[in-house]
Amino acid sequence: MSSGVRLSSFPLCPQERQPAVFPCVCRAGSGWTMGGRAQCLDTEVAEPGLGPEPIVLYLATAGGEDELLIERSIHTGMINPGDPWQTILHDGPVARLTYRIRVRCDDNYYGNKCNKLCVPRNDYFGHYRCEHSGAQVCLDGWMGPDCRTAICKQGCNLLHGSCSVPGECKCSYGWQGQFCDECVLYPGCVHGTCNLPWQCNCERNWGGLLCNKDLNYCGRHQPCVNGGTCMNTEPDEYYCACPQGYSGKNCQIAEHACVSNPCANGGTCHEVPTGFECQCPPGWEGLTCAN
């Protein structure tokens, strides 16, 4: 036989032999079925390995110098690894044989030549299983070469979020939120926003480093009374232009409140400590008898 061809022997129990008298006890062996009774006929199989070389089945009498060939069966063709059996029918001049052949790769080897190694794993070096072709199939939640890259939580920002285990979303420094898409404000920022971490962009009518200075104090607080006109001057600062007869920061002091004739429609003005009061004629009412 050609180099590289291996012969394996195992007993063959013909149907004519009665098991009760000459039992052929078979058990699983290394690659082929091995038996235990000398009365069984010896059978040899040439194993060229995977490929187009023929597989030869020899049927001979029990070993020794007087070993005689009974029958020889030659099967040619490719036999791909797999679980299904291939049934071979040999109708020879001496014996009619029916036997089955299948090729199974060693553990963790795949492919038509059993030369593709794939070892399933779920550890630091990879997270995958092996399909029938030997290709790696990532376990749920993993991707990339050797399936070492975790798939982050859906919606996690690709630039500012990351993960070391599936479903996680860990924010980079300066970012926060469920999906790591919210920047962290400058510490102490009051009425401000940010587009990038540590910014404090003031909202409308707010100013200062921390956006805590009111630029519209008049509109927000309306501090001037007694008809005074408010004007914003500096952040958190204002000026009240008081009408004639009033003074004070908020025009709250009445000096000669009735000088400006604030009462309308014939109302009579009376000065009081807080300003003035209008005594309205019949049919009129309100602070200045205007209603």
UniProtKB/TrEMBL annotation:
<keyword id="KW-1015">Disulfide bond</keyword>
<protein>
    <recommendedName>
        <fullName>Delta-like protein</fullName>
    </recommendedName>
</protein>
<dbReference type="Pfam" id="PF01414">
    <property type="entry name" value="DSL"/>
</dbReference>
<dbReference type="InterPro" id="IPR001774">
    <property type="entry name" value="DSL"/>
</dbReference>
<dbReference type="GO" id="GO:0016020">
    <property type="term" value="C:membrane"/>
</dbReference>
<dbReference type="Pfam" id="PF21700">
    <property type="entry name" value="EGF_DL_JAG"/>
</dbReference>
<feature type="domain" description="EGF-like">
    <location>
        <begin position="254"/>
        <end position="290"/>
    </location>
</feature>
<keyword id="KW-0812">Transmembrane</keyword>
<feature type="disulfide bond">
    <location>
        <begin position="138"/>
        <end position="147"/>
    </location>
</feature>
<feature type="domain" description="EGF-like">
    <location>
        <begin position="214"/>
        <end position="252"/>
    </location>
</feature>
<dbReference type="GO" id="GO:0048513">
    <property type="term" value="P:animal organ development"/>
</dbReference>
<dbReference type="GO" id="GO:0048731">
    <property type="term" value="P:system development"/>
</dbReference>
<keyword id="KW-0677">Repeat</keyword>
<dbReference type="GO" id="GO:0005509">
    <property type="term" value="F:calcium ion binding"/>
</dbReference>
<keyword id="KW-0245">EGF-like domain</keyword>
<comment type="function">
    <text>Putative Notch ligand involved in the mediation of Notch signaling.</text>
</comment>
<keyword id="KW-0325">Glycoprotein</keyword>
<feature type="disulfide bond">
    <location>
        <begin position="105"/>
        <end position="114"/>
    </location>
</feature>
<keyword id="KW-0914">Notch signaling pathway</keyword>
<dbReference type="InterPro" id="IPR001881">
    <property type="entry name" value="EGF-like_Ca-bd_dom"/>
</dbReference>
<keyword id="KW-1133">Transmembrane helix</keyword>
<feature type="domain" description="DSL">
    <location>
        <begin position="103"/>
        <end position="147"/>
    </location>
</feature>
<feature type="disulfide bond">
    <location>
        <begin position="280"/>
        <end position="289"/>
    </location>
</feature>
<feature type="disulfide bond">
    <location>
        <begin position="242"/>
        <end position="251"/>
    </location>
</feature>
<dbReference type="InterPro" id="IPR011651">
    <property type="entry name" value="Notch_ligand_N"/>
</dbReference>
<keyword id="KW-0217">Developmental protein</keyword>
<keyword id="KW-0472">Membrane</keyword>
<dbReference type="Pfam" id="PF00008">
    <property type="entry name" value="EGF"/>
</dbReference>
<feature type="disulfide bond">
    <location>
        <begin position="118"/>
        <end position="130"/>
    </location>
</feature>
<dbReference type="GO" id="GO:0005112">
    <property type="term" value="F:Notch binding"/>
</dbReference>
<dbReference type="GO" id="GO:0007219">
    <property type="term" value="P:Notch signaling pathway"/>
</dbReference>
<dbReference type="InterPro" id="IPR000742">
    <property type="entry name" value="EGF"/>
</dbReference>
<keyword id="KW-0732">Signal</keyword>
<dbReference type="Pfam" id="PF07657">
    <property type="entry name" value="MNNL"/>
</dbReference>
